[in-house]
Amino acid sequence: MPEVVTLGETMVLLNPINTGPLKYVSHFVKQIGGAESNFAIGVSRLGHSAGWISRVGQDEFGKYIVSFIRGEGVDTSQVKLDKEAPTGVYFKERYENGESKVYYYRKGSAASRMTPQDLNQDYIASAKFLHVSGITPALSESCHQTVLEAIKIAKSKGVKISLDPNIRLKLWSEQRAREVIMEMLSQSDIVLPGQEEGRLLVGTDDPVKIANKMLRAGAKIVVIKLGEKGAYYATEDKAEFVPGYSVSKVVDPIGAGDGFAAGFISGLLKGWDITESVRLANAVGSRVTQVIGDVEGLPTMEDIEVFLGRKKGVER
Amino acid sequence: MPEVVTLGETMVLLNPINTGPLKYVSHFVKQIGGAESNFAIGVSRLGHSAGWISRVGQDEFGKYIVSFIRGEGVDTSQVKLDKEAPTGVYFKERYENGESKVYYYRKGSAASRMTPQDLNQDYIASAKFLHVSGITPALSESCHQTVLEAIKIAKSKGVKISLDPNIRLKLWSEQRAREVIMEMLSQSDIVLPGQEEGRLLVGTDDPVKIANKMLRAGAKIVVIKLGEKGAYYATEDKAEFVPGYSVSKVVDPIGAGDGFAAGFISGLLKGWDITESVRLANAVGSRVTQVIGDVEGLPTMEDIEVFLGRKKGVER
Amino acid sequence: MPEVVTLGETMVLLNPINTGPLKYVSHFVKQIGGAESNFAIGVSRLGHSAGWISRVGQDEFGKYIVSFIRGEGVDTSQVKLDKEAPTGVYFKERYENGESKVYYYRKGSAASRMTPQDLNQDYIASAKFLHVSGITPALSESCHQTVLEAIKIAKSKGVKISLDPNIRLKLWSEQRAREVIMEMLSQSDIVLPGQEEGRLLVGTDDPVKIANKMLRAGAKIVVIKLGEKGAYYATEDKAEFVPGYSVSKVVDPIGAGDGFAAGFISGLLKGWDITESVRLANAVGSRVTQVIGDVEGLPTMEDIEVFLGRKKGVER
Amino acid sequence: MPEVVTLGETMVLLNPINTGPLKYVSHFVKQIGGAESNFAIGVSRLGHSAGWISRVGQDEFGKYIVSFIRGEGVDTSQVKLDKEAPTGVYFKERYENGESKVYYYRKGSAASRMTPQDLNQDYIASAKFLHVSGITPALSESCHQTVLEAIKIAKSKGVKISLDPNIRLKLWSEQRAREVIMEMLSQSDIVLPGQEEGRLLVGTDDPVKIANKMLRAGAKIVVIKLGEKGAYYATEDKAEFVPGYSVSKVVDPIGAGDGFAAGFISGLLKGWDITESVRLANAVGSRVTQVIGDVEGLPTMEDIEVFLGRKKGVER
Amino acid sequence: MPEVVTLGETMVLLNPINTGPLKYVSHFVKQIGGAESNFAIGVSRLGHSAGWISRVGQDEFGKYIVSFIRGEGVDTSQVKLDKEAPTGVYFKERYENGESKVYYYRKGSAASRMTPQDLNQDYIASAKFLHVSGITPALSESCHQTVLEAIKIAKSKGVKISLDPNIRLKLWSEQRAREVIMEMLSQSDIVLPGQEEGRLLVGTDDPVKIANKMLRAGAKIVVIKLGEKGAYYATEDKAEFVPGYSVSKVVDPIGAGDGFAAGFISGLLKGWDITESVRLANAVGSRVTQVIGDVEGLPTMEDIEVFLGRKKGVER
Amino acid sequence: MPEVVTLGETMVLLNPINTGPLKYVSHFVKQIGGAESNFAIGVSRLGHSAGWISRVGQDEFGKYIVSFIRGEGVDTSQVKLDKEAPTGVYFKERYENGESKVYYYRKGSAASRMTPQDLNQDYIASAKFLHVSGITPALSESCHQTVLEAIKIAKSKGVKISLDPNIRLKLWSEQRAREVIMEMLSQSDIVLPGQEEGRLLVGTDDPVKIANKMLRAGAKIVVIKLGEKGAYYATEDKAEFVPGYSVSKVVDPIGAGDGFAAGFISGLLKGWDITESVRLANAVGSRVTQVIGDVEGLPTMEDIEVFLGRKKGVER
Predict the structure, then answer these.
(1) Alpha-carbon torsion C71, C74, C75, C77, what sign?
(2) Is the CB of C107 inside 8 Å of chain E's CB atoms?
(3) CB contact, 8 Å: B246 with chain E?
(4) Which of C249, C291, C316 faces A20 most closely, judged by CB atoms?
(5) Which of A153, B308, E202, F263 has the fewest Cβ atoms surrounding its Cβ within 10 A?
């Protein structure tokens, strides 16, 4: 049974070979995209067992997603193949200036049909952490209920709950996002917002104020991601700014937040204190931005040692 | 105002570069697919004006579809760009033995939201033919109503109605397909079924019996497509088997039926009799099978002359 | 009948997939290139009707060019398919430092065989603007005569003439270019030179002096393109520097001048004054540089609103 | 602990995009190739647990191989990452007439350094079958010892041994191959030769004679693969020819033998008799030849039902 | 100084990645094409020294051609780089049924500007064979004069002249082709026509009659290529049909004629008699058809031994 | 006989199409890589004859390497095709931040089997320069002996010896590299180290000190490459810093050192003094960094004139 359990949707991503408007793009590469599976792969690569709960369509895209994630060492025994609904897909549109758009084809997807009955109580109960994101409740009402049920199980079994708000305004309104995520936050041990998410959820992008408001709302540990600058965390007892690692150039920021979460939870699993765990989170997040792709840059502990200069890398 | 008007959904097709299960395919090429737009392009290439009524999403894929079809010389002035719904997409899975599967992402697509209000009465009224297929009524109830309304307008204005059954069992049940298409058929002047469609609609794959049953059901001209063998047609007065053109090898059969319909209607537009028009339909259909792609092989009249050996082709 | 009419050659561009000397490049992508058709597409995208007069070979490349341009909403009814001559093609050689070379295969191309007889007097007469460039007269003597004849028709019918010098020293000598273009300029209402073109034509790259000299030579409105800085314009009565829009990085400058011209003429067509029209020209030109390709970045009026921050873009 | 355990080398395959001499090929696709891992994936897809024992280099190619095979559902807990030696690679050269050559870069590869110490006795002991091939002993003397040790462990624990001769004359001489493989055969319960392998090992390609000679040499069940014709098997008590399944065209024969072995062992694991198991083996082998790639065509039990016409496939 | 000298144009070929009309093809691969350079490469691969006389543009395409041909072992010391004219290029259009079209951009190319002054008398004089084709005189009048001058030099120095008619009706009329090539034939020692070329030149496709008419016209050895059937040759004294080598499937016929010529001349250079030389020609021609590309399948003598089964190929 | 002779290994390089860990890369392009052949190509392009001595496997990769290098104008008459060993290959792993790793498959390669018997004494004796690198002695003991023998021959015949240390720590230890290369240096006329190589060989990265120590060790001319800054050289009599040429951006540094060496030796061959020759070396090295690839950017003398602004380039 894995040490960390997460749940959420992973879709097939059709990534254009060229930048510019999709009207003029001729070729696409098939990849996968999913915040929670990125997180699980990140935890696995850092040396801990992770499990990913989801539904995919019983189709080629669903099989691809499961093989990919299982191949990365994540337990996929709790993933259901749904005969009635397709695997979600989405298209990216990338621009040379770094901007991008996404086009979702996920309405009515297999993952949006997750229900509380999909949850294996023992599976969650035997974990140390349950990690959830604000994407899942936005997918459908049954997904919303599923994530609440998972939180309830975890809570009743003493499993710590970690929440990454991951607000996607393409999926719901600001107001609805705020209501639902604040409700989840009130049940969570750990919250990992960015500054913009702080503004949307508690009306301020000041890290100290975000932390205070979220602690008051029920969270036990709040870690605010500040990008290249690092992160600020606060608990009832303690608060600290932990500086980040400077990198020459952010090559691809996507996936950095998932890596940050994986680093932080992995630090805690190693028995490290919060400061040390945030430091690991910062390092993992930084390294992810150095490689194109969501999971390609997720480091092993050995990569981290090299990244931090504590260990010499392989002769290049 | 075009001589021929048609309506239906066109989607973006993601065509895999390699054969085999999509799980193992890495690259896809963007193309388009739509039976009615194939038909319209076919008519246009044979020298007649054609108009295509539809909805696409107000997104890059919708713009791509409209530019492609307009580029081929079809009037797209009646196509609405829908801000509320995406352009439909689908994926093909191709096998070396010629088999293929499709994976649709078209539920709730822009085209599925067509309504009778989308129809411009004068536009239809000024045409000589309205061409419809059995795909459109399967997309949604509002699409069903739209195609019925188009037929009603045409009928009231003396515009001839041509129907290609095009039964897609991925979209509805056999029984529902039969009911709806037979209802449309009863209003149509021309019906262009294949043998298998005959079996599904009137319970026999014998061309003579199909023709008789469909004439009795209200059609004026029934032309049954017999693949490489040619076609059999019947009216109240007359019936004839028109032999096809032998080709060394069928390279890609997709789109041949649309080309057949384009050839037949174009023949009638030229004032040819039914036999001559079926001959043209056979020639167009055969030629389409010689080239990969739905519209790439659609011929001009000059290509047809060369194909039939009546004229020498360009020095190769 | 279109509001704006233009004429010129469009070729098939073979664009290498990789940078570096063509000797070592293995793959090329087929695209199109033509200053005047870029302009027409730009006008069409900004909401006005545009027509493009030309010749292409009656070959696959010619058909491709016509379909592409018609697909973008430009009227191509005046394009002749020439059985006797091929469509022109050219190859680009691109370097990482932004430099590029072109290799033309356009001598004796279909477009170089345009003659005054190709012109439909009524077609030009019913337009509000005729847009010409300094490329066409350099293609052949019959092209030279054709462009002069088009100017003559426009002039006699009260159609305003707009001239983009577009000097290509690969096609003719500096001296011949100067003679011919200054002759055209003397007949033009609007001239849209760059600074370097000013130097070649009137011997100075000072915007004020260029404007004065060109006004004296017969132009009514002179707009000098100053790249990212913006543009300077002058008429008999008025002169003004209109600042440009700063962009983080010029991704691809090709096509910016054509976009500028499309923006300016579209502004005038909307009834805007010169300053407002130059502002639109600046915005269109800037936006084109943000996207790879000549026409891929040409904006709609809605894109311009978003670009200028007057309207919120689609959620990305 | 898996029901079936196998061991052997898997390499990264660089597969040319085009046919013809590699001198003129510009692009290669990265895939994997390994007879024993094909077998394990085949068993897994047919619904049984399988484990693959091996070594790969602690490099990107080694990680790729492990992720791929684990992704397909095979247990890879016994795979060692070797810091001292690289993962083997090989290149294919394919011709239009179906011929192919391979170029190995596997001398001194990580897998060639497997030793008896790599074997986990309990892991093998808890399986029902150990599957070995004649490739492994040809890789190195330590590999030879490893496979012998694995056989010894299996024998002592009552685990059935299955042997696929898989003779590769690029790796050793005919005589050495014969000596070593016949020695292994004498310890095996099941042998699965082709006819040509029969000739090399026991001097005849007559199925009946091959079977008799191999039974006399110590095997308990001999199944001779006869390609599209099917297979012939014999035990002490019984012998039978089991006809194959005709397919329209063999698209890619590579991997058919591995699929055959996977089908046969899976049949036995299901408790089927030999005839039924050979029938499954025939079906699996046939289906593999219908899809390009070694593992892409390996079927699930449901695919088999469809293939045999016992069940209707998904609507295509 | 090479044993065999040839002269002619080699162009850059832009070969589409996909079949079908070029209008719909997006990517092209750069290759080279030239009958005489194919011949020279063929001779070189069979173990004899060959030199190729030509002009290419002093541009990247010209450098590519020279490097490619020199890389294959052909002497290119007599190739001029022309600063005033570009290297010729052409596009292929390929169809699934094996048909193809070409689109030339070679008018005014560097090679078409060859003049008699380009010829180095000593270079030709020291060879044993001069090989010419009927393409060169069709390129331009100066090319015509150049090939006549080369023949004159050869004749005066006792160098044997070999002629491959290679009639290209895209370049000139039948009548002009007949006049010029028959004039060249009257000066030639060896002529290597196909049957269709026989019909165009001497009005019959009967091999015996072709041979007789050409012998009477001045040729010393006439070898008529009969495709897979083999070849028929005749001299004053002797005539024989030499059967060809059956191959399972002709993969790509282009270049087979050039390979045939290379095989025949190489046979004579080895001191073989005509029958033996035709046998080699047949074998080389057959083998070329087994591999895609003009030169990719040109064999070494060792390949020929393997092809004829006289020697065992490398273990595949 | 060439003016410059060099010897060393050239391998086939499999270059990934995308950046990032090879685990996730799907496509590779075939190229070649070899310091000494880069040098020879560089010399050839600067107008001097160069010969490259080596072994490659008698396989498709070996043939590719020989054709490529011969195509670039280098004499390959001394290259042996080895039937017993394969051509070496290597893979690159490239990152967006400019870092890269290599994975070698060269142990036991054909080139590593070079022996002193491979050397043709007359071939070396007739050259003006023998150029060697510190890579060759690291490949095998027989390679070490071969390079020593080549040096001995050169020395005895008055051929000047030029040494590029080219230290590869993947192939041997620092200490062994130092011993062997310093031994070679003691026999050399010219040494061309970088600063880091200076540190490894003589314990300092100060150019003046490196030069002094190497002169004392036996070298006659020491030229220390200082990257974009230029180079410092010293002889017994003279020492000078020669500034480099500033370039806007280093696109690809690989091959710059080989180009530097080619430029320096070519300068000496032209009879220029050391300062002038270093200037040419600087220019060649700078230009190589402006183009992706090892040899793609190697300039002709005309390119150098343009690069230095002494001559106008072709109209772009």
Answers:
(1) negative
(2) yes
(3) no
(4) C291
(5) B308
Give residue-wise pLDDT tens across range E204-245. 999 999 999 999 999 999 999 999 999 999 999 999 999 999
- In chain E, what percentage of residues exceed pLDDT 90? 91
Q: How many CA atoms lie within 13 A of E22 on its CB side?
A: 25
Per-residue tokens: B85 = 């719904």
Contact F28 D14 (CB under 8 A): yes
* pLDDT exceeds cutoff 60 at B267: yes
Please answer whether residues F191 and F163 qualify as being in contact, where contact means their C-beta atoms are separated by less than 8 angstroms: yes
Task: Tell me the nearest-neighbour CA distance from C103 into chain A, angstroms.
Answer: 24
Q: What is the least distance, in Å, from the CA of F76 to any CA of chain D?
A: 17
Q: Which two tokens stand for residue D2?
A: 């898996």
Residue E310: per-residue pLDDT: 78
Q: Is F292 on the interface with C (CB under 8 A)?
A: yes
Whether residues A96 and C291 touch (CB distance < 8 A) is answered with: yes
Q: Which residues of E are catalytic?
A: 258
Strand F230-234 versus strand F221-225 pairing type:
antiparallel
The pLDDT value recorded for residue A316 is 35
Q: Which residue of A has its CA nearest to D314?
A: A59
How open is the CA angle E136-E139-E140, to the nearest 5 degrees? 115
Residue F103 lies in a domain: no
The DSSP symbol for F228 reads: G
Q: Is residue B22 assigned to a domain?
A: no
pLDDT for the residue D241: 97
ipTM (interface pTM): 0.94
What would the pLDDT profile of D248-282 be if each residue is shown by its tens digit?
778 888 899 999 999 999 999 999 999 999 999 99
Token pair listed for F42: 């560089």
Find the DSSP H helices in A74-173.
121-125, 136-139, 141-157
Asked if the structure places residue F51 within a domain, the reply is yes
> Taking all residues of chain A, what is their mean pLDDT, rounded to a whole number?
95
C59: left (phi over 0), alpha (psi -120 to 50) or beta: beta
Q: How far apart are CA B266 and CA B299, in angstroms?
A: 12
The answer to whether B267 and B278 are in contact (CB under 8 A) is yes
CATH code for position C284: 3.40.1190.20
Split into its structural domains, chain D has a count of 1
**Residue E282 in this model has a pLDDT that exceeds 50:** yes
Give the β-pairing of F27-33 and D27-33: antiparallel
Q: pTM for this structure?
A: 0.95
C313, D196, D219, F135 from D193: Cα distances, Å: 66, 8, 12, 47
Q: How many residues does chain A have?
A: 316
- Residue A301 dihedral angles phi and psi, to the nearest 5°: -60, -35
Please report which helix (H) or strand (E) contains residue F234, including its range: strand F230-234
Out of B251, B315, B316, the one facing E96 most closely (by C-beta) is: B251
Q: For residue D258, indicate whether it is catalytic.
A: yes
The CA distance from C26 to B84, in Å, is 43
Write down the mean pLDDT value for chain C. Answer: 95
pLDDT tens across F60-109, in order? 999 999 999 999 999 999 999 999 999 999 999 999 888 889 999 999 99
Pair of tokens at residue F168: 């590869």
| C-alpha torsion D132→D138→D144→D147, nearest 10 | -10
Q: Which of D296, D314, D315 sits opposite B20 (nearest CB)?
A: D296
C86: tokens are 């091929």
- Please give the residue range of the domain that contains residue A208: 4-10+35-87+114-307
Tell me the shortest Cα–Cα distance from F23 to chain A, in angstroms. Answer: 9
Report d(CA C214, CA C182) in Å as an integer: 9
- Is the Cβ pair E292, D96 closer than 8 Å? yes
Which DSSP symbol is given to A194? B
What type of residue is E53?
Answer: I
Chains that touch A (3 or more CB pairs under 8 A): B, C, D, F
Round to whole Å and give the CA distance between C64 and C85: 16
